[in-house]
Amino acid sequence: MSPDLVGLLVQATADTLTMVAIAAGLGTLFGLPLGVFLATSRRGELLAVPPLNAALGFLVNATRSTPFIILVVAIIPFTRLVAGTSIGTMAATVPLTVASTPFIARLVEAAIREVDHGLVEAARAFGASPAQIVLKVLIPEALPGILLGLTLAVVSLLGFSAMVGAVGGGGLGDLGIRYGYQRFRPDMMLAVVVVLIVLVQAVQTLGETLARRLNRRIRRT
Amino acid sequence: MPARPSPHDGDDAPLIRIEGVSKTYPARAGAAPVAALSGIDLAVPKGEILGVIGRSGAGKSTLIRLINGLERPSAGRVVVGGAEVSALAERDLRAVRARVGMIFQHFNLLSSRTAADNVALPLEIAGWKRDAIRTRVADLLALVGLEDQARRYPAELSGGQKQRVGIARALATGPDVLLSDEATSALDPETTRAILALLKRINRDLGLTIVLITHEMSVIRAVADAVAVIEGGAIVERGSVFEVFTRPRAEITRSLLAGETGHGLPPGLAARIGPEPLPGAAPVLRLVFRGAGADTAVIARLARETGIEAAILAGSVDEIGGQPFGALAVALSAGPDVAARARAFLVGHGVETESLGYLAPNREEARVA
To answer: How far is B122 from chain A (nearest CA, A)?
Structure first.
C-alpha cells in the first residue's frame, strides 16, 4: 500500500473514532436519563407516569425500527439545523447520536429493571426521595449492566458509522466502499476490515474488563 | 444532625397506634378486590417487643408496612410517636421514616457498597456531614460486632453478618422503632439465635420499640414480650408471650404452637391416642405447669399419695417470657376413675390438666404379653 493510502486509512480511522466517540458520549448523556425514566415511570414504579412512559416507549421503538441508512437521510433537515451542514464527519454525528440515544436508553432501562426491588423498598423505608433512590441505589447497582450495555452500543455505533459515507461522513466504512469496492482495491478493503476488527475487540475487552472489575466485589468468587 | 422532633402525647401513650385499619387491594382484571387486612386495632407501648405471627398470606407483611407508610390503609388510622402516618404525604413521611428503622428477610443491602457504606446510606439520605457519618458508622458497626468487616462487600459476608449490617443500617438515624420483616427467616438456627439476641440487647440498651413479623413461634418466644396472632387479615389473639404460649385460645395459635415446648406429641404416639376408653387403654392427660408453681415433683407425689402412676410421654419444662413453664403429656396407669382422681389431685396442686384421650396398648407389647 502506498503512503498515500496509509494516510487515507489513518485519516479514516480518526474520523470513525471521532464520530463514534461523540455519538456514544452524547447518546449516553441523553440515553442514560431517558433509560432511567423509562424504567422508573412504568406503572407501580418510583415515578409512575404510565401515559408518558408509553409515549416515550413508542418514540424509542419508532426510532429503533427505522433502518439507520433511512434515518440518516430522513433527518437531514434536523442535521442541518443542529450541525449547520448535512455533509461531513461532524454532520454525521447527528444521525449517529439520534440512533444511539434510544438504543442506549433501552439498555440502561433493562439494567435498571434488573435491580432487586427490595433495595428500592429499603431505600424508601429509610426516607430516600425518588431522586436519591435513582442516584444512590438504582444507578450504582445497575452500573455493571449499564457498562456492558454501553460496550454493546459502541460496537453497534462502529457498524453504523460505516453507513454515514452516504452523506459524506467519511470514516472507515466510506473508505472501504469507495476505495476497496468501487476502485477494486482488495488490499484497502482488507485493511479497513482489519482495523474495524481491532477496534471492536479493543472496545469489547475494555468494556468487559471494567464491568468485571465492578462485578468482582459484587459476585462471590 | 437534624433535630429530632419528639411529639409525645404523654409518656404512657402507646408509641404505635393502629386503629380500625383495613387494607383492600383494588380489583385486577377479572379478579375481585383483595382484602389484606380488616378491622385491625393494635397498640404498641414504648420499649415493647411485639411479635406478629401468622402463616404466609395472613397479612403480616402489609401490617408492618403500615407503620412506616410503605403501605397505606384503605380505612383507619396509623399513628407513630404522635405523627399520623396514614395521613401524611409521601414527602412528609420521609421525616417519620428516619425515626422508624427496618430490617428485611433478604437483607436488601446494596451490593455495590461496602458494609460501612451500606450503613452510611440512611445518613447520606438524611443529609449528615461526611465526618459525622464516618464516626457514626464506626460506632454502629461496633455495636453489631462488625468493626473488622467495614470494608467488605455484602457478597463477602455470611448471612448473619449481612443481617448485622442491616441492623446497623436500620439504627443509623437513631430511630425509636425498629421494624423486622422476617429478619431471621433466611438464617440457620444458630445464626437466628445470635441475631435475636442482638435485637433483644438493642431493645434493652437503646430502649427501642421493636415490631417483628415471623411465621416461627420460636422467634416470638426468644425475643418478644407480647404477641399478636394474625389470620386472614385479622388479629385473632393478642397477649403477653407467656399468656399466649401457655393458654392459646385460637385454633391457629395452637397449630402454630404445635412444634413448641410441650405442645404436640410425637406422630407415632399421637396415632395411638383415641377418644374411646378401649379395654386396657391408659388415659392421657396434658399437664400444664405455669409460673412459680411449675414444680414437676408433683408427679411423684401423685404416685405416692394416690397410687396412680403417670408415665411421661412427651413434654418439656422451660422458661417462656422469663417465667417457668412446663407442659407434659402423661399416660396414667389403667383403672376405674383414674383420670378423674388424678385430675382432682393435680388441680388441687395448681396444675392445669386437659384430657387428650386414651392411649391404646402398643401392639408389640400386647403380643408379647
So the answer is: 6
User: Could you say which DSSP state residue A164 is in?
Assistant: G
Per-residue pLDDT of chain A (221 residues; tens, 9 = 90+): 688 888 999 999 999 999 999 999 999 999 999 999 999 999 888 888 999 999 999 999 999 999 998 999 999 999 999 999 888 888 999 999 999 999 999 999 999 999 999 999 999 999 999 999 999 999 999 999 999 999 999 999 998 988 887 677 888 988 988 888 888 888 989 999 999 999 999 999 999 999 888 876 655 44
For residue A115, the 8-state DSSP code is S
pLDDT of residue B7: 45
**Domains defined along chain B, listed by start:** 16-99+175-257 (3.40.50.300), 267-368 (3.30.70.260)
Whose cell is 502506498? That residue is A2
Nearest CA in chain B to A121: B70
Q: Where are the domains of chain A?
A: 3-220
Q: Which pLDDT does position A45 carry in this prediction?
A: 87
Give the predicted TM-score (pTM) of the model.
0.84
CATH 2.102.10.10 fits A3-220, yes or no: no
ipTM value of the model?
A: 0.86
Pairing label, strands B49-53, B273-274: unpaired
Name every residue whose Cβ is closer than 8 Å to that of residue B326 and which is 6 or more positions away in sequence.
B262, B287, B288, B289, B294, B296, B315, B316, B317, B318
Residues of chain B found within 8 Å of residue A214, distances taken between Cβ atoms: 112
Taking a contact as any Cβ pair under 8 Å apart, which residues of chain B between 145 and 204 contact chain A? 153, 155-156, 169, 172-173, 179
